[in-house]
Structure formats: structure tokens, C-alpha cells
Amino acid sequence: MVYEAVTSLDAAEVIRRAKKFFAERVPMQAAFPEKEGPTWLTLRGQGGEEIALAAVPAPGGTRVRGSTLLFDQPLERFLSTLPVVIEGAA
Question: Where do the domains of the chain lie, and which CATH numbers do they carry?
Fold first, then answer.
């Protein structure tokens, strides 16, 4: 499944938070970095399942897209922790 959110954080901060969140906040379904770049990250977890994240510039912030087959709930939880972009804020 693919999930998406727009945040006020930059891509580097999104990637940093994702690594910390998936290693520490979901102990029964932890996932750890496998490969990464400045705007993307893949994590591996239980049974070799993957979480793929990308963070790219968007109007007013950064668009974060994540996909997974097994980690739907933790991925949704992670995206819900990101600060949202407030429309019309200057």
C-alpha cells in the first residue's frame, strides 16, 4: 500500500526521524535502514519485509511517500507524527 503526507520538515529531517521511529517506536515490528540517499530510505524488518520512503519538495514543504506490504499501521503512525503544512502560513 502507498501512503502520503505533506510536512513542513525538510527531506533530511524526515529521513532522520524515520530511522529513529522505526528502530525505537515500534519494537514488535522494528525495521532498520538498508539503503538510503538524500531524499529516500529503504528499511528492512520482520521476515525481510520492506518499507520504502521518499521525501521530495512540494509547495510549502516536503511530500513524503511511503510504501509497504506488511508495515501499514507503523507507516501510518510515522506519517501522523510529522508536522503538517498549514495553508496560508507565511
Answer: 2-80 (3.30.530.20)
Could you read off the pLDDT tens digit of each residue along the chain, which spans 90 residues? Answer: 999 999 999 999 999 999 999 999 877 889 999 999 999 999 999 888 999 999 999 998 999 999 999 999 999 999 999 999 876 554
DSSP 38-82: TTEEEEEEGGG-EEEEEEEEETTEEEEEEEESS-HHHHHHHHHTS
Q: Report the half-sphere exposure of 31 (CA within 13 A, side-chain side).
A: 30
pTM of the model: 0.90
Burial class (CB in 10 A: 0-12, 13-18, 19+), 32: exposed
Exposed, middle or buried by CB within 10 Å (0-12, 13-18, 19+), for 27?
A: exposed
